[in-house]
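Protein modeling request. Please complete all fields; requests missing the sequence field cannot be processed.
Requester role: graduate student
Desired output: 3D structure, token encoding
Chains: 1
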Amino acid sequence: MASSEKNEKFIAYAKTLKDIPWCDDYERMISGMLYDSFVPELVTERIRARQRVTKYNAYFPEDATAESITTERETMLRDIIGKLGKKPYIEPPFYVDYGCNISVGDDFYANFNTTFLDCSLVTIGDRVMFGPGVSILSATHETSIQSRRDGIEYAKPIAIGSDCWIGGNVTILPGVTIGEGCTIGAGSVITKDIPPFSIAVGSPARVVKKVEPVPEL
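Delivered output (217 residues):
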């Protein structure tokens, strides 16, 4: 269910991100409270994000080389993602709701058709890999029909620890934390937290095996 008050910790963290559409409903949105997604500030930010993602997805000049395309894509990604580490690589097409609410560590790789509904904060550690078709869905709605008619929604944060491999067509639902060193089997639906150094599969996903922990880098 939605939160009843603003999360000052999340709001303070958001101040370290790029291109945040500051307004009361933005603070409510990242805090997990009910909010109006159609206020002008949020609508404008979604349009901005779609413009930049469309440019990224379409960019492939005839004279491109592996080096030039990697460099140009990284430059464009830094205009889309709120906080981005070293050596990111996202295969186009990919999609975001806002982009500014996403934090990504070093050496991130995402295959084709990644979707981020980043209405809340989405935090990804270092050396994380996505298969094709991964969906990060922080947005949700009340079951009240009138609430949905009124355009009211809420969101919950999603976090993925370092050294995780998220298989193809995995869906990660609002409020989930995946611990470091996890492998998520293709096609899984993650509805609850996955502890570190676990292998989880299925819909809903369940832990089927543990792996040997490794020291932090």
